[in-house]
Amino acid sequence: MPGLLLVNLGTPDEPSPPAVRRYLRQFLSDPRVLDMNPVGRALLLNLVILPLRPRLSAAAYLKIWTDRGSPLLVHGRDLVAEVKQRLGDDWQVELGMRYGQPSIAGALDRLDARPLVVLPLYPQYSSAATGSSLEEVFRVLGARQVVPGLSTREDFFAEPGFLDAFSAVAAPLLARELAADPKAHVLMSFHGLPERQVKKADPSGVHCLVKSDCCDSLGPKNRHCYRAQCFATARALATRLGLRRGAVSVSFQSRLGRTPWIRPYTDSILRDLAAREIKRLLVLCPAFVADCLETLEEIGIRGREQWKSLGGEELTLVPSLNASPAWAETVAQMASRLA
Predict the structure, then answer these.
(1) Phi-psi region of 109 (alpha: psi -120 to 50; beta: other; left: phi over 0)
(2) How large is the greatest C-alpha to C-alpha distance in the chain, in angstroms?
(3) Which of 13, 88, 152, 159 has its CA 20 to 30 A from that of 178?
(4) β-sheet bridge partners, residue 324
(5) Which CATH number fits domain 160-317: 3.90.79.10, 3.40.50.1400, 3.40.1550.10, 3.10.290.10?
(6) Pairwise CA distance, residues 224 & 126, whole Å
(7) Residue 183: its pLDDT value, please?
(8) How far apart are CA 203 and CA 339, in angstroms?
(9) 3-156+324-338 and 160-317 in the same fold
């Protein structure tokens, strides 16, 4: 029986400061996430982040929590059911979170299957998400007496099914916005990363973030550059949606701390677009395949509040892929090809 492990980043068990503190401790103790000196990481985590951040994050989670729980977990479970239906009874499908529950270790314990396919649900590759998730899978399996073989994908930013599914979700909303205002603008906001992490993925050491156009194309020098992959995703979606160059912008959100993160920043782009007297904005978040804190609260609530404070009339968040039929079919097809 083939087995499929779908991996996402994770979520607190509940929208409370203690639960968020447990989650953040596990998340930010990961050296691939806070890639700094271990002593410095411990000091930053225990003296700065954990005393302050859990209460603020818990309040944000509370705004998006549903009767079924965390949206990320709810959509993940629904996706498992939809993919399982498409793959059939011969397949076993499990969900594992890199941080929190259900854990990767627990999901692998339940997956008594051969061959084993592991699919991290991050379209663009980053060491902090994809690399960390795969490292945890290898750690858990490597401790077993019989180590199973497995197949995986490091990214799927150029997967036609992924791009088609996102375009299908966005197209009706785009048509509605353009009907209301032909000057409506599209913003594609991706999760950000510290610049130092992007530079580490450059084997040459002299390409990434050196020139303003370094992400305009993909090649051997930047094949694993997260920022370049994000721009490639944006170009492909813009083509599918029939967007002209001036009607779409790309930005990066969720930065933390004082170190430089990849630009342009989403909050800065919102100010720039408002200064251009754009009134209606459609926002896609193509780094996320499931709606979560970063899409629903950061963009859908805080981003909308900022936009209206700047004089914008409407900010519409395009729902993520979640467990939509087209996305479930794409996941099933990717798994079948890897098995």
Answers:
(1) alpha
(2) 63
(3) 159
(4) none
(5) 3.40.50.1400
(6) 8
(7) 95
(8) 30
(9) yes
> Of 287, 294, 292, whose CA–CA distance to 76 is shortest?
292
pLDDT value of position 117: 97
3-state percent breakdown (helix, strand, coil) of the chain, nearest 5: 50, 15, 35
- The predicted pLDDT at position 3 comes to 95
Quick: pLDDT tens for 110-157.
997 678 999 999 999 999 999 999 999 999 999 999 888 899 999 999
Using the predicted structure, report yes or no on whether residue 282 has a pLDDT greater than 90: yes
> Domain boundaries in the chain?
3-156+324-338, 160-317
What does the pLDDT average to over 204-225?
87
What angle (nearest 5°) sits at the alpha carbon of residue 222, between those of residues 219 and 225? 135
Compute the distance between CA of residue 154 and CA of residue 319 in angstroms, rounded to an integer: 24
pLDDT tens digits, 66-102: 999 999 999 999 999 999 999 999 999 999 999 999 9
176-179 LR contacts (CB < 8 Å, sep 24+): 177/280, 177/282, 177/314, 177/316
Strand-strand pairing, 314-317 and 248-253: unpaired
HSE (side-chain half, CA atoms, 13 Å) at 90: 9
287 and 190 in contact (C-beta within 8 Å)? yes
The CA distance from 7 to 76, in Å, is: 9
What would the mean pLDDT of 228-233 be, rounded to a whole number? 97
Q: What is the CATH number of domain 3-156+324-338?
A: 3.40.50.1400
Number of H-type helices and E-type strands within the chain: 12, 8
